[in-house]
Amino acid sequence: MSSYARCPVCPKNCIFAPDFDIMGKRKQDTQIAIKNRKAEFLYYLHTSYTAGIVLTGTEIKSIRAGRANITDAYCSFINNELWVHNMHISEYAQGSYNNHQPKRDRKLLLQRKEMRKLMTKLNERGYTVIPTLLWINDNGYAKLDISLAKGKKMYDKRETIKERDQRRRGNEEDWA
Fold first, then answer.
1. pTM, rounded to two decimals
2. CB 154: neighbour CB atoms within 10 A?
3. Which of 5, 11, 26, 77 is the most exposed place for a label (fewest CB within 10 A)?
């Protein structure tokens, strides 16, 4: 049996390799998802948005290799545009002199309505915008899930630790 299949889209009985999509692009084997695990511990996450990112060629290649870190990143408005700061994308190994700076500021792409909502909420005391997940969609574009967040107090963090420990103990008892 061959590794080729009949095309499900066109009426012609053309043959295509299952490793490729209809447009001829190679399908990705693994999904890239870089999560900010620290965010759920340090903040109450209120609303979440998905934003596109303006990247250079070597940056998207490094993200596809899983070489990014959004733990210390935060977002802010500069001239009515949303920018992400302190997001570390490692230099691409095969990059030449055209390689990018690892911690440069990157512009986020959101719709105007969403930007206005975020701006009004950020004017309130205690709110910030933090990235929670960096992923690549089906079309190959990098997306960043950002959340409107409010910082937790120390006693709230202790409560979170207690709940997590209780959940772990419950799971251990189920296994025993």
1. 0.73
2. 7
3. 11
| Residue showing tokens 């695990």 | 37
**Residue 122: which of 82, 71, 70, 72 has the closest Cα?**
82
CA distances from 6 to 17, 27, 65 (A): 9, 17, 32
**Looking at domain 25-153, does it have CATH number 2.40.280.10?**
yes
Q: Where are the domains of the chain?
A: 25-153
Write out the two tokens for 122.
């950020």
pLDDT of residue 94: 84
Chain center to CA of 91: 18
pLDDT tens per residue across span 51-75: 999 998 899 989 998 899 999 999 9
Q: Which of 20-24, 124-128, 131-135, 149-153 has the highest mean pLDDT?
A: 131-135
